UniProtKB/TrEMBL annotation:
It comes from the Eukaryota. It comes from Araneus ventricosus. GO terms for molecular function: nucleic acid binding. InterPro entries: RNaseH_sf, Transposase-MT_Hybrid. This is Mos1 transposase HTH domain-containing protein. The lineage of its organism: Eukaryota, Metazoa, Ecdysozoa, Arthropoda, Chelicerata.
Amino acid sequence: MLKQVYGDDTVTLKTVYAWFLKVIKIVSNRGYIRRVRSHVKQSGFWFLLHHNARPHTATLAKRFLAQPGVTELSHPPYSPALSPLDFFLFSTL
């Protein structure tokens, strides 16, 4: 069916499976998640801002956050139009 739509530019199923396996190997590597800037890593004190986006609620992310030594801080719900990173824009309110 895809071949009919995209013609010769269609990616083979074998290629899709190869990409999928490559991504799974990268994501399942705990060292990949722990990579942070060296000066932050040396301090041992850093924050990871996440929300309910699909990558943040994945099983692997939940397992990482459930480890000893990882503390989750909840924040109140906010408008999807305004990210917590944009709060500095309204410092006078």
